[in-house]
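Example pasted here:
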Amino acid sequence: MKTREELQHKWYKKGEKYAKAINEMVAFGTEHGWDKWEGEEAEDKRGKIAKEVIELLWEANANGTVEQFRKEFPPAHAPIVSMLDEKGGYIGDLCYISEDIIAFMQGTSYESRQAYVAEGTVLTALDKEIRSIGQSMQSKVYAIAYADKIVTRRGWGGEVIAEFHLENLVNTGITRLIPFNDGQKVLFISSEGIYLLYPNQVQLLHPEPEEEDDDYGTQIDMENATLSYDNEYIVIGDQGSDYLIFDANGHKIGEVGPQSSYPHYCLFSKDDKQLLTNSCHFYNGISIGVNTEKLQGANIPGWEEHEDITYLDEGMRVYAGVSLKDYYILGDAYGYIRAIHKEGRELWQHFLGSTISGMVLSDDEQTLYVGTHAGILHKLTLNKAVRDTHTIGTANIYEDFRLLIWKNEEKVLVW
């Protein structure tokens, strides 16, 4: 058994060396091209002491010394990978409520789920009957799905705007909910179809009824969709389709083909002037931008260059994203978040670890919350100097804290 001092020395020195090597490798590859890199990729060898370090983290949480612990043991992902199959899990559907307060879901649409509110590092479990939550693109309208209905509210816990009875969708797992800015409609995304919900009507948008296969019904894979910030456009994609463009009433007005194998994620720019679509192949992918003015009547073919598209990124399989004034922050399959300018260049990258599963941005665009499939929620301050020499990335990002919200654990670990 190593002493605390021995563990701290090994954790800190090896972690610092690993981060430095990775950052130098990335800097070289970015400047000179990855084909020129001839060195070996760095390896984090702290896995053997990770369990002991996590035990010390439990102690620090119990006695209120987390701040000091983090200085001595800066957080890392690679050493704890062996724990994640048992303990990790989806953290997503993040909703920004107010300064230092967010809501989110633990568990995917096909798992047992739990909704939480996080106020700083303090978690409060919500009604166990909640199946999903979602936030409007503007105006802070929230949708909460219960066993048999969805309720939209103006403000978190505010006045009820509308109720949507789920009827035939009662037993359908919800991938994502996006209420419209006025709370009178909800985009309902699931692997059993994508629907536009009204208080007294359910409209199937995709797949179209005539496309339904007798064996699979409305079953789809890699289902994804978004609304424009002004709610004028609905965009839908899945593994077997192009990106389908609809107006606000669910009438199809155009199509945008994928540039990689399968449509996987979509998002509008903050000013609604550009639609980003991502398509993937294994853990990689391609993101393109389409001028919103070109969406009406769009018929952009897949897998070929086109005058109406801008190549934004040609590496990421995107799972989550947010829009800022001139760029996007996108989270990928490898555990990176990257800032991509609307013109198509990477501004920075920052490594968190494990597939990114959710993101939400504060109103002032200074705080970013990121959830991952490692069962970890990160609170990040943008445009602030990094906190320690263990950070992997090229961005000025300060991590305020990370919460380890792990399965079969009674308490949450703050790191």
Summary: Residues 18 and 43 are 7 Å apart (CA to CA). The chain is about 15% helix and 40% strand. The first strand starts at residue 91 and ends at 98.
